[in-house]
Structures are given as structure tokens and as C-alpha cells.
Fold these 4 entries.
Entry 1:
Amino acid sequence: MMAVRVLVVTDHSDLPETWQFIGLHNAGVHLHVICPETAPHKQLLLDAGIKLTWLKLNSRVDSAGRVAIQASLDQNNIDIVHVFNNKALQNTLPLVKQSPIKLIAYRGIEGNVSVFDPISWMRYLNPRVDKIVCVANAVRDYFNKIKFLWWRFPRDKAITIYKGHDLSWYQKPAVPRSTWGVPGDAFLVGCIVNERPRKGLPFLVDALAKIAEADLEIHLLLIGTIDGKKTLAKIAQSRMKQSIHLTGYRNDAAQVLAACDACILPAIKREGLPKSIIEGMVHRVTPIVTKTGGSPELVEHGVSGLIIEAGSAAAISEAIVQLARNPQQNSKMGVAAQARIQRDFNTVTTVEQTLALYRELLDQG
């Protein structure tokens, strides 16, 4: 493949994204990354020898940011701009509108794009966007269903490239469950979630009340910021309140989850490819996911986890009780979950598919 000059504009760069950039750089792509100086893994990028420009975009129309992006376009003879968030897309689009530069957008969540929303036409529905990389097939399919009268979203514009992971990133020891007073022989279910209505947390709390009837020692660990008055009141009134533990926000959420027997995301809509579930799977923690967004794409039902109906406390309780009563089955699923991430959601594949996308766009001229 000929040398490709790619400008990346991002605002965070988590580990999968960071190693995607490193993999592309190591494959010979001339990569220039624009990101905030507060990016959590910036040292990895610096150590890899990737060219960086520090920039935080503060709004959808960021004049200073656009000047910096334009300078990079002018100085580096860029072939492709690959943007990873809404602000990056909306600020970059006007700069390449009359240019032969190819523009790739990234979409990590299902929904919130509409032909009736003017902002959508300034982002993902803009015909100047060449490709949209979707984090899951569910996100891609959402785009492909968009239509109005005779107009349909271009069929081949949205594609799926899963965010890849590597088991070597997750070698730190688990945080002991005793930190929260959870007995060693209890069946512990972990849930990494920051409270939002679409995350379905009330259904999970209601499920614990149903589990109280099962005569099993089951505890729930809620990892993240839970500050809604209704949710906190529901927990306080639960028959199982002594078995529900709130950790608050944790920088080591994956290590906290590693001490659990199962992990769950009770989302009711608009999921992408949930990192919180992946972080359980890499630690051999059996996942329970709902039929929403890309969650079912992570799990082979009955093999590497359980897939249940969304918005059902009964379905949640039944899944948890099933795993708690069958420890051998649960352990087997946990092993299969880790193997699935290693096999089907790895960073090597992500880099290979991204390179293929770059090649395709440049071959199109």
C-alpha cells in the first residue's frame, strides 16, 4: 500500500482507539493526531513516535480549532481525515467541502440522527462525508433505515469496524470484593453504569427484589455515578438493599468488575458496543446483555453469555438466578466470553479493516 497521509481528530482516545492509531502508524500510515493534551493515553502515542497536535474543540463552531485543523491540512498534504466525535466532524466538514480529501466519520452509538434535524445534515447526513465507521452492525443498520420520501441514506456509506481490544491491557489484579463487604461465597453481579434513563437501571434494582425469593446469596455491585433521587430511593426501599453496593466513580472500574461472577448492562435502547461488558468478558466474567444496540453482537447466547429482553426485571432476575444456580455453566461461559473477545474483537483486526477502508477510498480517487 502506498504511503497514506491521515489526519485524525479526536477528543479522548481510549485504549482501543489509541492502539488503533499505533497499529496504523506501525503499518506505514503517515498519521497526524489532533487531540487534547489531557488525552489519557497520550504517552503511548508519543512513545510510538506519532505526530501530535494538542487541541481541544470546545464547540461545534470552534474558530480557533478550525484554524489549527486547517493548518494541519495545509502543512501535511493530507489524503484522508478521520474524525472520532461530533465536534470534530462538524468543525472539519467545512474545511474539506471543496477538497479532494476523503472524510471518514465515526459513530459509536445507535440513534439520534434524523432527516428532520438540521444538525444531522451538518454531520452524518452531509453528502460530503465519504464513510461512517460504525462501532456495531446495529449502528450501521440504523443509518441504512434512514429515509424520507424518495431519498434514502446511501447504502454503502455506513460500515462496521469493531473497536478492538487486547487481553494484555487487562492484567492488573482484581479489586477484592471484600472492599464492599461482599462475602466470598456470594454470587456477585457487577454493573458499570453512569445513570441515564436509557441504561435501564430501575429494572435491575427491581430484579433484585424478585431474586430475594430465590434463597440465594446474590449481591449487586453498581460501579459508576448513581445520583438520581428516584434510583437512590428505589435502592433504599429494596428488600435487597443490604446486598446492593455503590462504588461511585472508579478509575479502575474494569478491575472492580474482575472480582464479579457475572456482569450486566440492563440498557433499554441506544447502545453501541458497550465497553463495560467487554471489560467483564476479558476477565472471564459472564455477560448478561439486553437485545438493544450492539450488545447482542458481543455475546453468543448460551455459549459466551446470556441475551435477554430489554426492559424486563423478570428477565434480568431469571438470568442472574440461572447463572448463580449453575456455577459450572457460569464458569464455562466466562472462559468462552474471554475467548470471543480475543478472537473476534481484537485490535489487529481493527487495524487491518481500517487499512482496507483507507485503500478503498484512495482507489476510488
Entry 2:
Amino acid sequence: MIPAMKTKFKKMVLLLGQLTLLTAAFATEAPAKPHAQVKDPVVLSFSTVGDSRQDPVAFDSSTGPLTAQDKTWLQNSKAWSRIMQGVQAQKSKLLFFNGDMIMGYGLAGPTPSNSVVDVVGSDLMAFYRQYAFWRGMVAPLMESGTYVVPVAGNHEVQSKASGKKSQVENENAWRANMGDLIIDTARFKTIVGQEATHINIQNQGGVDGLKSDQGQLTYSFDVNDSHFSVVNTDAVGSDNFAPSEWLKSDLTAAKSRGAKHFFVFGHKPAFTYAYKKPKPDNFEAVGLDIHPEQRDAFWRVIEQYGATYFCGHEHEYNMTQPKGAAWQVLVGSGGSPWDAQPGEETMNPASDRAYAWATVSIRKSGKIEISAYGFSDIYGPTRLLKSVILPR
């Protein structure tokens, strides 16, 4: 090889070596975090969604027939599984499930007789079977860093045969199947990495004149300076009702001990989302606004404390500020048949038939971000639907 070629060859080898080292350095170096995130890290994150139960009759036929599994266990397994995978990927420490995790709607009481046929075919057995399947589906969350916090919905506590009225037997079945999650302090700390304190799970009915024990149906707890309140919006004798007096005393006590952030969870929306377009003048209220005066009392408490209300019941996703201040985050989009029908003209066509959930990030500075994510009825890619930052 002539000297000039040797020199050129050596330079090429040297250059390739430098490029190899540079590539290796980029490959092994952790991606840099935005400076703002380093200075203001997330101190607690949680996700929320509701309504994953399936309907054996009025299922959404546009997505195809029910699988044998979902027809038996009455769960939208495909959509709900994917939502949980999204929550896991976001590393949320808590998942508040806002009710209607089972079809329910029966009477979870004694059977007419002790015969095998009566027991197996009873509403009581159906409730426990559906609860067990749902608990099995969420078990991996509990084992991978997300604590599940349940919220009672009308399908858990009401009986269809009684005219969709709540029943004591169904409230008892709720406690029997969900009570171990409300609140297991040792397991909570292990999973979340922080303690749940000032836990209040006792009978919450008296102050609002409710007829039944609301222990473990309406309850609250703190995590550092964030306060979480769960309300049963369908107590026995007070369906479509939020316990505003209890909530006011609960938030007052939390604020007096230093709570700065207030989050409230219930099944039914305070303000019905009228998804049809054009919006009808006399649309039917399906939430707490069935009783406007009681709803207004509840919402005054929400706004007084700068709280955010998360709910379900309507099988839609929608984020709104009904009175211009506090947010209502409707995420009844966990897999139950949508309210909006295929091809129907709606207010938000890009998201009215989306399987969706919301994730909340609380930063060290007190900044709070609420981001909604979802995917289409044909299981397209997950996308950000909306993100807002709450005023401090």
C-alpha cells in the first residue's frame, strides 16, 4: 500500500473509532429530563375511571358480539385491560374506580331456599361472582405499584326490581367484597410508598339524614397535604344524592389540619353531560341534577374548597367547569356500552366514543396537572385528549 493511502486509511479507522465511542456514549446515557421537571418533581400521581361492567342485552354491537367470557362475567375485559395497562405505564400510585364495576342491579339477599339451584341462580351469587372477576382483573395493579380505591356505583347498590332504588343488602355486599381495600393501611404504604392518614370510614349517614350505615361507602383519607373524599351518590332512601353536609365537615376538618389539595370522587355526575348535538333544551338529567337544590348545595362545597370532582355513570368522557371555577371530570368510559351511538352527531365527536381515563400529577410546588387519555372504539392508538393545570 502506498504511503498516501496508508495515511488516509489510518484517518478513516480513527474517525470510525471516534464515531463508535460517541454512539456508545449516547446509547448508554440516560435521556435528560426537562429542567422544570427536575426542579419540580411529581410527589404523588393517581388515575381515575369508572364503568367497566358489560351489559348482556344492551351491549355496543358496533364493536362486535360479546365474547363468551364477557357474556358470562359481564365485564368489558378488552377495554378495561388496556386502560389498566395505560395506568401501569404512567406509574400512577392510586387508581380511583368510580363505580359500576359490576352489572349487579339485583338484590344481594338471602335465597328463597338453600337448594343448589336457588343458590347458584340467585342475585347474591351473581353479585359475588362479578365482584370476584373484577377483583381478579385489578389484582395485578395492586402487585405492581398501584393501590385500587373503589367507589360505589348504582349498579353495586341499587336493585332494578325495586325501581332502581338502593338496598341495604347491596350496601352490605359492597362492604363484603370491597371492604378490605378501604383502607388497608399497611398495604397502602407498601404500594404507594406513603401513608394514608386521618382515615375516616365510619358511619357517615346521620349528618345528612341518611337511613343506612354509610361506613366504607362514604369515606376519606389524607396523603401528605392532599385530601381524598369518596361519596356514595345512591344511599338507601336517597338515590341521586351527594352528602353535602358530611362533605363540608370532612373538608373543613382536612383544611384545619393543613390539607391544600382536595379531590372528591362519586359515581354520578353533579352536572349531566348532554352529549347530543344540537344540545336539547329539555335534556334528561341523570346525575345529581335530578335534585337541583341538593346538587347546588353539594357543588357550593366543591367550589368553596377548590376541590375537583371525578365521576362516572354516563358512559362518556368529558371535562368541564360547570360554574366556571371547579372542574367536573367525567370518566365513565372504562368499557361499558357508550351512551353515544355509532354515527350519532355529538358535541365532541373525537372523544364521545373513546375509552378514556384521567391521570393527575401533584408536583412538589403544589402545581396540579389533570390529563385525560383515551383510545377509539376500534382500539386505535392511545392519545392525549385534554390537559389542564389547576390554579394553586
Entry 3:
Amino acid sequence: MNVRDRVVEAAERVARTKPHDRITYADIAAEAGVHWTAVRRHLGDRPTMREWLRGLQSARDTPHADTRTRILEAGAAVFAEQGYRSASLDKVAERAGLTKGAVYWHFASKQDLFLAILDHHLSAQTRLLPRQLDRVLRSDEPESALADLLADRFRLPGEDDGRPMLFLEFVLSGREPEVRERLRKMHGLMLDGAAACISELQRAGRIRSDLDPQAVSLMVDALLKGLVVEWLIDPGRAGDRELFRTMARVLWHGLTP
């Protein structure tokens, strides 16, 4: 986590315990573990900082999630509905029910927010996978459990909330060099995490040892991404439950010893 994020998150924590007009640079610096000048550098002068804190505290009465999460969720919806080029931080602020200042303190630009959403989605997939695979292998009906896993991974982008369009925006935005490089790195980390899980299962004798873990990881990921494209073309075909049962049957008999 960079210094800016530490300062912002520390400020949000302090804002839960003290009125905005009584919070000092020193309060936030102590919470973040940084020098008070770092707080001033990232949050501005005292009136600006306290006005932002006031906005956070007034917004906190209605939402159920913390400010950063609300912005990420609102940003994902705006990018999915309007596309990267038409989206703006002002529109995200309006969607999240926050002041523009609250959004701009968390994210310096539209690209910054977009990359954070990308990171959030790929990290979630990487974090969930080991537990999901373990649940499949421990199941009394592993083939059926694998079908559930595939359906769940396919649903992760969101079948009915516009997020397949967000996936498409991730791919299309790769035309921008910085986004393309971040996408490549983040996606690579996700694939490497999946390959590491597969290697562990091979060592435990749960998956055939003559398969390349990286190739298996990429193959399954490509299969699911292809399904998202198929869903965008014809949702009725790609979302059919029998499709996941068939995929699970083919994969299970191809992967297991």
C-alpha cells in the first residue's frame, strides 16, 4: 500500500471516532504511521482536509460500505454502462452518492479508478480460487461441485448487473499502454496463482502430473473468458446450466489421474 492510500484509510478510521473539525494532522499521521507533513501533502491544507472529512462523515450515515468500496462499486457500474471513454469521476461520484472531493481524494484520475477496479476483480478471483478448488476435491460429487465452481467463476463478472460489459471494457482499454501493461501484470499474477494451486494438487496426487500447470491455468481461464463473449452475443445459450455440467465432465476426466 502506498503512502497516499495509508493516509486516506487512516483518515477514514479517525473520522469514525472524532468530529471532523477536531481532527488534526497529528491524529491522522499517528494512525497511518507517517510524518504529519505526509498527511498535509496528500490531504491539503487544514480547511480542505476538514471539509473532505466533513463530507465523509455526512455520507457515512447512509451507505452500508466504506467510501472506497462504494466508489469501486459505483465506478464498475458506470464503466460497464457508459464505457471507459464516456465515464468520468463526476459521474462516479453522483452514482455513489458522494461529493466529488471524496472521489478525487481516493482516485487521482479516471484511469486510476479503472485500474483499481481491475485490480479488485482479479485479486478477488485469485483469493477465492484455492478454497474453491479444495471444496471441489473434498466433495462427495466432485464433478457436480466443479460444475458449480465453473458457474460461480463465470458469474463473478456479474451476469445481470452489466459487468460482462465491464470485462469487455477491460479488454478494449488495453489500447492505452499503461492500462495494457497493468492488465498484463495483474492477469499474469492471477494465472500464476491458479497454476500454483494446480501444482500443489499435482504434488498431492489429485491432478494428473503430466499436465503443465501454466497451460491448464490459461486453458480454463480462456474457456471462461470465451463464455463471457458468448454471453454478450447470446445470453440464453452461454448461461445454460447444462453447459457447465458438460464442461465439468470434460475437465474432470481430463485432469484427474
Entry 4:
Amino acid sequence: MFYAVELRYGVLVDLAHRIFTGESIDLAMGCFNIIWQGDNNAMTLLAFDHVASPPFVINLTGPEILSIREVAITMARRLGKTPRFHGAELETACLGNAAPAHRLFGPPTVSAERLIEWVADWVKRGGETLGKPTHFEVRDGRF
């Protein structure tokens, strides 16, 4: 599972809060995948039909590879803010290829574009969050 998102938690919530509070966003990770938590849950349940030994392994995420910079700019517009950045995009990122999952279970029902809209609106309205950052930008494995 690569970065399941809901209104109270996820990479998009982390980005929206940083933008909303004027905190600088680290660009090192560069790109990321996301999936709506509801779609992730539905696909996880469908995967039980494929339990096997040796194990059946499949990645769950959305089909899009999203740019940290571009998503932050889009979110900032929705939040009425200007994003602040530091660092530069590196050549590597933690990404998942969920094409096999989408062939088996169908594509996610909620697009990244819709998730960006929902999260920006939620944060702008002061919606409650879980207060647990994802640490998506961490590249050394220390969270």
C-alpha cells in the first residue's frame, strides 16, 4: 500500500497543513502515489480471493505519479496561500506500480485530483486530523 489518504490523514493532509501554516515543503522525494482509503480497503478485501502459498503479492495505490511541487501549487491555490519549498527533487522516490491490482480489481473510484480537492477543502475549513504525520519525505528510513 502506497500512501492511503483520507481527510484526517495522509500525504495530502501533510502538504495542505504545511501550506496552510506557511511551513516549507521539502522537495527531495519529488513524486508520490496515493489511493483513497476506501478504495484501498475495497481492494484489500478483494485480494482475499487470491490468497496463496507461496504468497500472492500486489501493490495497492493509485495509477498516478504525482509531483510534490505540482500538488503543493494546486493545493495552495485552493487554500488561498503561496507554497514555500526547499531542496530539489532527487532522481529517486518511493513509488508503487499498482497496474496488476487495477487489472484484477478495477481502478480506484476516487481520483488523485478529487482527493486533492477534498483534502484542501477539509483543511481550509479546519477539519479535524489525526495529528500523525506520514513522514513521506523521509529518505533515510528514520521516522
